[in-house]
Each structure stands twice: as C-alpha cells, then as structure tokens.
Amino acid sequence: MSPEPMRDESEFLASYDPRAYDPVAVTVDVVALTIRDGALHVLLVRRGGAPYAGMWALPGGFVHAGGRREAEDLPDAAVRELAEETGLSGKDGALGRVHLEQLGTYGAPGRDPRMRIISVAYLAFAPELPDPEAGGDAADAAWVAVDALGLTESGDQRPGTTRRLAFDHARILTDGLERARDKLEYTPLATAFCGAEFTIPELRAVYEAVWGEELHAGNFHRKVLSVPGFVESTGATSDKGGRRGGPRPRLYRAGDARLLHPALLRPSREEEIR
Amino acid sequence: MSPEPMRDESEFLASYDPRAYDPVAVTVDVVALTIRDGALHVLLVRRGGAPYAGMWALPGGFVHAGGRREAEDLPDAAVRELAEETGLSGKDGALGRVHLEQLGTYGAPGRDPRMRIISVAYLAFAPELPDPEAGGDAADAAWVAVDALGLTESGDQRPGTTRRLAFDHARILTDGLERARDKLEYTPLATAFCGAEFTIPELRAVYEAVWGEELHAGNFHRKVLSVPGFVESTGATSDKGGRRGGPRPRLYRAGDARLLHPALLRPSREEEIR
DNA sequence: TGAGTTCATCTCGTTATGAGAAGAACGAAA
DNA sequence: TTTCGTTCTTCTCATAACGAGATGAACTCA
Questions:
Q1: pLDDT tens-digit profile of A218-228?
Q2: Which of A80, A204, A210, A211 holds its CA 20 to 30 A away from the CA of A184?
C-alpha cells in the first residue's frame, strides 16, 4: 500500500506529499426510506447547480476529509448531509431514531462529469418524518413514492418517468431497495419504520409496502409473536380500531433480537432464485 | 452535491478545480479466502515500507483515479492489486475462477497515519491456489490460516498473536469472515471454494471450515441435493475414496441457482441472535 | 484379511409453514 | 339504533423442512 519502501516511518511522513497522487473526491449519498400512506417513499432533493441541475438526486455531498475543515467519519458525513439538505435535525432531533447502515461504494470512472468521484452510499430506515425543507445546495426536497420513479431491475428508470434521477442514483436506489427487502427477512429492522410503539397490523403494513405484496394476516401475526425477541408486549391497546372497522389492536415495542430466527421469508422468492 | 450553483454546465466544468478540495486518497484492499488442508486461509502480504513496515496486511493499494494513469474501476483495481502483490495472474489465469464482491468501505479519520485514506474492501472466494509470490511493495506474501490470527469478535487481535495486522485490517478481515459465513447460508457460493467438479463431502468440508463446526453428514447430503439448482450431477464418480477409507463419492458441479431456497442455516445461530 | 472409516440413504419425531375458518370488536352507513 | 362489512386474533389441518440416529455397502490402511 505504500508508494515506495522507506527506512524510517517519521522520515516517510515528513516527505509525503498527498497532492502527488491522482485527484479524487469522496462523497456520501443517502438512500433514506420511510413509509407514508402505506407506500414506500425515498427522500430526494432537486439539484440547484450543475451538473444535472434541475434533476432529482439522493441527498449527499462531499466528505470533510481534513484539509481545511475538521476530518469527519463517513457515517457522520451521512447524517450531516441528511440534516443540511433537508432541514431535518440531527441525532437528537427528527433523525434520532433512524437506522443507518452502509450500502456500498460506487466509483466507476465517468459517473460524475466533474472529476473522479467515489461515492459511499448509506441506507437509512426512518419512521414517518415531517416534510423536509430544502437547504444547502438543494433547490427542493421531498419524500417521493418509490413506485413513481419507474425503476427497473437493471438500475435504470423506465422512459417517460417524470422525475429523472441524476448520476447513477437510480442504480444506488435500486440496490438500496433490494437491501431493504432482504433486511426485513432476517432482521427486526421493520420496527425502525414504526414509532416507539406499534401494532402488529402496522408492522405488517411495513412489510407489505417494502415487499410490494400482501401477506396472510393470521400467519404473519403468529410468526411475529413466535420469533423470540422480535416484539414485546406493552400490555396496552391502541385507542382506535382500524379506519375501516375492526377491533383495537394491541401495542408492542421492538424487542432485543438482532436477528430473526427463524427468518420471515417473503412468499414470492421462487422467481428470483435463478 | 455541487459546491456552488452555476448557470451553465460547461462553464462549470471549465472553472472547476479538483485540487481546491480536501486531499483524499482511495485504496482497495482485498480479503481473499480459500480452503487449505481443511482450514480457512486468508491471503496476506508483509509490508516492505512504512507505515507498519514488517507487519502483515491485506493485499491492496491505491486506485488509479485518472490523473497520470488511466482511470480504473474499483473491482478492476482489486484484481490488479491481487495480481501485482501476489504474482497470481489475472482474470484469465489463477484468478479466473474467483468470486469477487464488495465488502464495505472504511474511512475513519486517522486509520492511516499518512493522510486521509478511504479504503474500499473487496471479498474474494477462491478455490485452492498456488502459493503467492511477493511483488510490488510486498516483502512477502502467503496464505495464512485464519485461526492463527487470534481475531476477536470486536475486530481486534488477541494479545500474543505473532502475526500482527496493519491499519484496521483486523476489523476488515473480521467483517469479511462474517460476510462469508452469512453468504454460505443463502447462496451457493461455497462452490466457489471448490474446483469445477467436486464431491458433496468436499462441499461439506468448505462449510465446516468457514463455519468452524461439524455438520451432520447425512442431513447435509439430503439438504444439498434437495435445494433446486445448488448442484447438478456429472454422472461420474471420484477416482479415489476418502483418505481414511469409505466408498468413492460422486462428482457434482455448481448448479444455476443464485440463491438457496430454502437456505442452509448454520446450527449454532441461537447465540448470536441478541 | 480384519478393523475402522466414510458415503449414501432411510426412518422417525418435532417444528415450521401455507391456507383457510371462526368469533369477537369495531366503524360507517342505513 | 341497527345492520353490515371490515379487521384483529386465535385455531385447525395438511404439508414441508429439520435434527438425530441407524443401516449397509464401499473403501483404505495395517
């Protein structure tokens, strides 16, 4: 990993010139997902400046690497960009309960017309949040229904889709959705889309929105209660029934499991196997 | 993502100065795993130069970003570094049959004493390969038994371990092993550790080496044959029995499944759940 | 030749899953 | 207020999957 062998470490550090290397920039981009009106939504910003001005993009920006500003870690950069470009406050505010994990890194030459840019993508699961306010370089910011973006399996957008995504963000978003679908199978992260207390029908609505298919209510109920540590009862009952009738569902909160065992497998997996 | 709004994209590109940004460098590091003598091994190089001279590290190096050399994509950089530092030839040679996937990106400030370095880690599964030859900046290169590195769950090495790992490579390797264990559960990638044709006992040995526990031979056999697309029969039989006796096992090759359904879950999962 | 090992298959009891049904609780419309 | 349709929650039942153990044949090594 070192450019050339040297005898002494301090001598090496003194003579080291970072600028002698190829110029690269590192950004973070965030795929922030939430459930609104029973449908999966992603947080997007409309780009104010070039390149791709006017198009929609994932919130993100350059990592403060330590030159003029203080160096920040990658997850911190993700939270900062999310806060800056959307007006949502950071860890102690609206973004306090979100789950954040690294999704992947995208660095193909030419993915950004300005220069070689390596983008570290993060994936966030959030409970229902207020509408964002555009800030930073963003001309606009909004929660957008994922279904309205016309994404294809290959990471493109279908022709005729009104909201076009900049850069390779359609691919990043597609990968993020795929990851979210997988994570719901074997981790309890569906609870990250809910409030602190939730009902089993609410939890089922999360699965149905992310997976895009209806689940058998009875079997789902049995399964959630039988997996150890998935949810724990609060003893209380929701104060209202469903909006179209039905009894008041009981309230639960997230349990202490980090993995679901056995997993909650989605029904229509057969097609994707080959 | 743009530094400041501008009216025209070409005007923007002309005036853009990459050097105005914080200096960052991007590297790739590869966690290359294989099975030798029934035990899981990882490819390591001994560092010739500073920093961490003399310590062991994952093979890796700077990404050619496009300044003086031609820009290369991240996976290409991973293959190139693997080839350069170990003497193993590239895609058409010994490295032709390896599975390569992105593992994660490590960019904490201070992880490299020279400057801010963002490292994109890749994970490789390889069948048994020849001993590597040191090249590039590496003073030595070898397949090292993972068990001999004294890795802890928290990504450190136990005190007293002779081969110390440079940088945060103990953490990267720990994450890679965790990922490998997971992948064996729900993908047919265990076959990537085998040759083109293999027996079911050989495949079981892969699982036992990666998971570090013995499996029930009969149930494993039933399971592998019952999962559609995992393996397909060649009709042939191995020309030798096991080294300690037993009949000649039949030969199989990898099937066309990309996902195992139902998955092959490892037995002792209960402990890791909470 | 004999002893010990391993492959491959089978059995059996337990657990998990999919599909459907039923009673009770509720909202909304008549 | 009554009625009707909806939803929560719990059951049942048939099927599939799994863990543990057993068996006989095939092979290596002493």
A1: 999 999 999 99
A2: A80
Closest residue, CA to C1' of D20? B216
Query: Cα–Cα distance between B87 and A97 in angstroms, integer?
Result: 48
Instruction: Evaluate if the CB of B217 falls below 7 Å from strand C.
Output: yes
Of A1, A6, A116, the CB nearest to B71: A116
Q: Report yes or no: B22 and B118 within 8 Å, Cβ to Cβ.
A: no
Question: Do B211 and B184 touch, CB atoms closer than 8 A?
Answer: yes
Residue with tokens 């950071």: A90
Nearest to A258 among B8, B24, B273 (CB): B273
Closest-CA residue of chain A to B110 = A71
CB contact under 8 A, A272 and B258: yes
B160 Cβ contacts chain C strand, under 7 Å: no
* Strand D: positions under 7 A of a protein C-beta atom: 5-11, 17-29
Q: Do B18 and A25 touch (CB under 8 A)?
A: yes
Closest to B105 (Cβ–Cβ): which among A72, A110, A120? A120
Most B CBs within 10 A among A1, A4, A122, hence the mutation to make, goes to A1
Tokens of A93: 């505010």
**Neighbour tally for A25: CB within 10 Å:** 22
C-beta of residue B141 within 8 angstroms of C-beta of residue B59: yes
Beta carbons of B72 and A113 less than 8 Å apart: no
Q: Is the peptide bond before A127 cis (omega within 30 degrees of 0)?
A: no
pLDDT tens per residue across all 274 residues of chain A: 434 433 344 444 434 444 446 789 999 999 999 999 999 999 999 998 889 999 999 999 999 988 667 899 999 999 999 988 877 776 667 777 899 999 999 999 999 998 999 999 999 999 999 899 888 778 899 999 999 999 999 999 999 999 999 999 999 999 999 999 999 999 999 999 999 999 999 999 999 999 999 999 999 999 999 999 999 999 999 987 667 889 999 999 999 999 999 999 998 776 655 6
Contact residues for A250 (Cβ-Cβ < 8 A; gap 6+): A199, A200, A233, A234, A236, A237, A238
pTM score over 0.70: yes
